[in-house]
């Protein structure tokens, strides 16, 4: 590297990786790849094939500021301001949960039911309660062209993020937003009701990794004393908004299959499917209602 020039892409990647190794992050190379690739707008392949390109001073400065943020436990995707979910690029905001790969399991699980209902009814309507970035609803709309959807949330900032994500992914015409808690502002019937609600017990929040407790919005995490408040609220009213043959799909915590199932059974639902995540923990449940 000649004097006066900035580092190359490879050198910058190595610098970031070294700092992350030093900080004892779980997967320093992968995080460095995501961060440097995101900041320089390069794919994993391009990080290698364009490794000898010189990085401009402003990008180097951004990368070094990003290192400091990551070492302060801010997750890489929050620093970049976006994350891929189910093939869609989604913008994140402080008011939204960062969509995780485990939540893609809920989309995978609900999608065949949505497609079956679309064959039966032609057009189907999806409600995503606590939509956040819009991730679940937008992924389902993207995969199911016969569907329209509503994302509801208590946070206006989250809803603006979801609306922007719908526009960003060409789904604005089939996606609408509603502000309110649970079903209070909802009208009409839905073929699919989905939610990744807050499900962590209040007392556990303080023990979570700083990446989660300091950067994900508390309202998207705290499920009350026993972690089941959200499921009670959804189960209590969902049947009134559910179309004939419709389904309710929810994400759950790793140890909540029995308790969440009993909450829904108490409200007249029955479990039709339970799916585990990549770590073999229960993650998604699908219910139908006894008509």
From TrEMBL:
<keyword id="KW-0949">S-adenosyl-L-methionine</keyword>
<dbReference type="Pfam" id="PF17827">
    <property type="entry name" value="PrmC_N"/>
</dbReference>
<comment type="function">
    <text>Methylates the class 1 translation termination release factors RF1/PrfA and RF2/PrfB on the glutamine residue of the universally conserved GGQ motif.</text>
</comment>
<comment type="similarity">
    <text>Belongs to the protein N5-glutamine methyltransferase family. PrmC subfamily.</text>
</comment>
<keyword id="KW-0808">Transferase</keyword>
<dbReference type="InterPro" id="IPR050320">
    <property type="entry name" value="N5-glutamine_MTase"/>
</dbReference>
<feature type="binding site">
    <location>
        <position position="182"/>
    </location>
    <ligand>
        <name>S-adenosyl-L-methionine</name>
    </ligand>
</feature>
<feature type="binding site">
    <location>
        <position position="153"/>
    </location>
    <ligand>
        <name>S-adenosyl-L-methionine</name>
    </ligand>
</feature>
<dbReference type="InterPro" id="IPR019874">
    <property type="entry name" value="RF_methyltr_PrmC"/>
</dbReference>
<keyword id="KW-0489">Methyltransferase</keyword>
<dbReference type="GO" id="GO:0032259">
    <property type="term" value="P:methylation"/>
</dbReference>
<dbReference type="GO" id="GO:0003676">
    <property type="term" value="F:nucleic acid binding"/>
</dbReference>
<dbReference type="InterPro" id="IPR002052">
    <property type="entry name" value="DNA_methylase_N6_adenine_CS"/>
</dbReference>
<dbReference type="Pfam" id="PF05175">
    <property type="entry name" value="MTS"/>
</dbReference>
<dbReference type="InterPro" id="IPR004556">
    <property type="entry name" value="HemK-like"/>
</dbReference>
<protein>
    <recommendedName>
        <fullName>Release factor glutamine methyltransferase</fullName>
        <ecNumber>2.1.1.297</ecNumber>
    </recommendedName>
</protein>
<feature type="binding site">
    <location>
        <begin position="196"/>
        <end position="199"/>
    </location>
    <ligand>
        <name>substrate</name>
    </ligand>
</feature>
<feature type="domain" description="Release factor glutamine methyltransferase N-terminal">
    <location>
        <begin position="11"/>
        <end position="81"/>
    </location>
</feature>
<dbReference type="InterPro" id="IPR040758">
    <property type="entry name" value="PrmC_N"/>
</dbReference>
<dbReference type="InterPro" id="IPR007848">
    <property type="entry name" value="Small_mtfrase_dom"/>
</dbReference>
<feature type="binding site">
    <location>
        <position position="196"/>
    </location>
    <ligand>
        <name>S-adenosyl-L-methionine</name>
    </ligand>
</feature>
<feature type="binding site">
    <location>
        <begin position="130"/>
        <end position="134"/>
    </location>
    <ligand>
        <name>S-adenosyl-L-methionine</name>
    </ligand>
</feature>
<feature type="domain" description="Methyltransferase small">
    <location>
        <begin position="122"/>
        <end position="203"/>
    </location>
</feature>
<dbReference type="InterPro" id="IPR029063">
    <property type="entry name" value="SAM-dependent_MTases_sf"/>
</dbReference>
<dbReference type="GO" id="GO:0102559">
    <property type="term" value="F:peptide chain release factor N(5)-glutamine methyltransferase activity"/>
</dbReference>
């Amino acid at each position: 590297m000649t004097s006066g020039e900035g580092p190359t892409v490879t050198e910058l990647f190595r610098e970031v990786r070294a700092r992350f190794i030093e900080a004892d992050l779980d997967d320093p190379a992968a995080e460095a790849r995501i961060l440097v690739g995101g900041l320089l707008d390069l794919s994993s392949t391009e990080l290698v094939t364009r490794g000898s390109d010189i990085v401009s001073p402003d990008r180097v400065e951004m990368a070094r500021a990003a290192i400091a943020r990551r070492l302060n436990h801010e997750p890489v995707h929050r620093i970049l301001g976006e994350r891929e979910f189910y093939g869609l690029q989604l913008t994140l905001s402080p008011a939204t949960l960062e969509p995780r790969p485990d939540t893609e399991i809920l989309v995978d699980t609900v999608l065949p039911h949505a497609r079956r209902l679309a064959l039966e009814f032609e057009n189907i309507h999806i409600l995503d309660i606590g939509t956040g970035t819009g991730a679940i609803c937008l992924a389902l709309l993207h995969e199911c062209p016969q569907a329209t959807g509503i994302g509801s949330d208590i946070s206006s900032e989250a809803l603006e993020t979801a609306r922007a994500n719908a526009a960003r992914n060409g789904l604005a015409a089939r996606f609408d937003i509603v502000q309110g808690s649970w079903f209070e502002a909802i009208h009409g019937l839905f073929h699919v009701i989905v939610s990744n609600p807050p499900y962590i017990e209040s007392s556990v929040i303080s023990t979570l990794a700083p990446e989660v407790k300091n950067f994900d919005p508390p309202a998207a995490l705290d499920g009350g004393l026993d972690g089941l408040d959200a499921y009670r609220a959804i189960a209590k009213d969902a049947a009134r908004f559910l179309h004939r043959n419709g389904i309710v799909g929810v994400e759950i915590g790793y140890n909540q299959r029995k308790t969440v199932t009993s909450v829904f059974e108490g409200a007249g639902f029955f479990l039709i499917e339970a799916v585990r995540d990549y770590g073999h923990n229960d993650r998604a449940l699908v219910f139908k209602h006894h008509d």
